[in-house]
From TrEMBL:
Keywords: Hydrolase, Metal-binding, Nucleotide metabolism, Zinc. The keyword Metal-binding applies. It comes from Klenkia soli. InterPro entries: A_deaminase_dom, ADE, Ado/ade_deaminase, Metal_Hydrolase. Belongs to the metallo-dependent hydrolases superfamily. Adenosine and AMP deaminases family. Adenine deaminase type 2 subfamily. Residues 14-334 form the Adenosine deaminase domain. GO terms for cellular component: cytosol. The record marks 223 as: Important for catalytic activity. Zn(2+) binds at residues 19, 21, 199, 280. This is Adenine deaminase. It is an enzyme of class 3 (hydrolase).
Length: 336
């Protein structure tokens, strides 16, 4: 098998995307189209200038730009178009199931109604299911550097339609905002029947991963790459079967790792951690799911290993057992 044939086969490998911020799929062209449609100004003169700003030093420098683009999202139609474009694009990379984070607190602060956001996203998910059989769900992602009261307000705003969500997450600036601040919010979400996940160990220390697991009761850890610094934590993740949603291109572009060779994904996989591969904010980080799988070819990942990564993504998803079995059979049938 050649590298070329492996690269050519990766988009045909059915996979679940479990770490994806819907606002991070806002391509510059769509950002300007929505800005015009809504009469909103962007702090950049044109698409080229916006794209040129995608040179990040760390998580915060990315978040500044990411939040600066969000005010173009105003209507149900906007959230529909954004979500539908992502589901269509990622399907070409073999994404057959997608669980999408949404930073609802930011949209509420921008004066948008929770129902406008969720109506648009659920309609796009239903459309992708009807058109291509794609399944998926929405995860309310708590913005950890906003006041905790606004996290509760976001839960209040969706409580009447909690069945439209699959889970609760935790994102945004990590250092200084440990998971322990969100125990009550996550307890409330669990009582409402939501699955729990959290970003931890992207820039923050391994202790934040421990807090996410032990205090928030998360079923997956988003990023989690700094867990590799703590052998006891790696052993805990293996023993409890808690998956990580790893995003290689994101880690490179936000300089969480100095280069690909230094990325801990190989060490985590070899240690027996349940690792999945995801795109995080594909419009900003230079690639959708396919590109994030493809870059691992450079780290020596083989076809059987790619099939295992995809199978792990399906098992780690929050879809039902029948859908998991269907997708696992499709992965089994994949050949290079
Ligand atoms: O990678 C991320 N980390 C934290 N918050 C985020 N919000 C969007 N993307 C990210
Ligand atoms: Zn993320």
């Amino acid at each position: 098998m050649t590298t070329g044939s492996l690269l050519a086969a990766l988009p045909r490998l059915p996979k679940a995307e479990l770490h994806l911020h819907v606002e991070g799929t806002l391509e510059p062209e769509l950002a300007f189209a929505l800005a015009e449609r809504n009469g909103v100004a962007l702090p950049y003169p044109d698409v080229a200038a916006l794209r040129a700003a995608y040179d990040f030093a760390d998580l915060q420098s990315f978040l500044d730009l990411y939040y600066a683009c969000m005010p173009v999202l105003r209507t149900t139609e906007d959230f529909h178009d954004l979500t539908a474009a992502y589901l269509e694009r990622s399907h070409r990379d073999g994404v057959v199931h997608a669980e999408l984070f949404v930073d609802l607190q930011v949209h509420l602060a921008n004066g948008i109604g929770a129902d406008d956001v969720l109506d648009g996203m659920t309609r796009a998910l239903a459309g992708a299911r009807a058109a291509r059989g794609t399944t998926g769900g929405i995860i309310l992602s708590i913005v950890r550097d906003s006041p905790v009261a606004t996290a509760h307000a976001a839960l209040d705003a969706v409580a009447h339609r909690i069945h439209d969500l699959v889970g609760i997450g935790l994102d945004s600036a990590e250092v200084g905002y440990p998971p322990s601040l969100f125990v009550e919010v996550f307890d409330r979400a669990a009582a409402l029947g939501l699955h729990r996940v959290a970003h931890a160990g992207e820039e923050g220390p391994p202790a934040y991963v421990v807090e996410a697991v032990e205090l928030l009761g998360v079923e997956r850890v988003d990023h989690g790459i700094r867990a590799v610094e703590d052998d006891a934590l790696v052993a805990l993740l293996v023993e409890r079967g808690i998956p990580l949603t790893v995003c290689p291109l994101s880690n490179l572009r936000l300089r969480a790792v100095p280069d690909l060779a230094a990325h801990p994904i190989r060490a985590l996989v070899d240690a027996g951690v349940a690792v999945t591969v995801n795109s995080d904010d594909p419009a900003y980080f230079g690639g959708y799911a396919g590109a994030n799988y493809a870059v691992l070819v450079e780290l020596g990942f083989t076809a059987p290993e790619f099939a295992r990564l995809a199978a792990t993504s399906v098992r780690a998803s929050f879809t039902d057992d029948a859908r998991k079995a269907e997708l696992l059979a499709q992965i089994d049938a994949w050949s290079v």
